[in-house]
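Predict the assembly for these two chains.
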Amino acid sequence: MNALNLALLASFTAPMQIDTTPAAMLWLLPLVVGIAVVYKATKVSSIRPIPFAKETGVLIGSILVFITAAALILYGVAWFVNEHLPSLLGRPGF
Amino acid sequence: MSPSWKDNHTLFLSVVGVLAWLIPGAGHFALNERRRAYVIFVTVVVMFFAGLYIGSVGVIDPVGAKPWYAAQMMNSPAVFFLGRISTGGDYLVFGRSNEIGQIYTSIAGLLNLLCIVNAVYMAHLQVIEQEEA
């Protein structure tokens, strides 16, 4: 086995360094692309490159919009619960 | 509907399902859905290997992460052998890399499960069309 093959195999035996930062959320994007491509591949009647790419793009956009909306709503709820709810209930914060 | 036809039908659907599990996209390939098969194969395999690259082979953990392992097994029976490699405890992985690697490999497996079901359904439709023709 040559050095290239060994290096390739070794790259699958040690994990990548991914910090717990907001940037780690970007790993979501390739996942969304993969989900949209496979889902559309099972749904369209025939696969022609341009219509397929268009439909997949629309699905990717829809997923991202809904994820963003859900994140904003959850952020708003968390902000309200932490900042305003304690004063409304007359108790110290959570 | 004769018993022999039903037997053949069941066998055909089973073969398509098993093919789709053995190699992602192979079920569609057997049904002459070549483009669909290539798209499924490339996407599922790339997603699975991306997960392995991110978290290492340690993300396939048949002992400590059984639900994730069940989803990963949907990729291919080959995952069983990868699971045996990581069972020895030589490739422990923790933290964000583990989470993201597990999510990628498991989602790839669940997407392949969707493709297996779709291939079997398409095979069923083909048989029905042939019977009606």
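Residues 22-89 of chain A form one domain. Chain A has one domain: 22-89.
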